[in-house]
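[step 3/7] fold_predict: job queued, chain A
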Amino acid sequence: MMIYGKNIRIILGIIIAVIVIGIIAYLIVKYIPFGERAKFIGTWESEEGNFVYTFFSDGTGIFEGIFGEEKGTWEIKDGKLIIKSDGTTNINEYSFSDDSEKLLIDGITFIKQQ
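[step 4/7] structure written:
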């Protein structure tokens, strides 16, 4: 009888450990930028000065343009920059310069601000 109770505790311990590891992995992927996503973090101003985009590591952002300032969210999906704000979704082509100090979004060049 004691062996059965011990096995249940071991199985429950393993299940709890797997759940905790899964939660930690999810939080790391969501809130700690890495790879291509990490390059976006910070404030970017267009060369013409018409736009200022600020990308935060939690996937939120502030997008300033000729129509004012909008708060929203952003993500990288299937090699595209997706910006959602004020009920609209914009899917953008993008590329970085070799030193990641310039960002081209749909033909507009942004320069990383310090």
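[step 5/7] annotate
The beta strands are 42-46, 52-55, 60-65, 68-77, 80-85, 88-92, 94-96, 102-105, 108-112.
The chain has a mean pLDDT of 88.
exit 0
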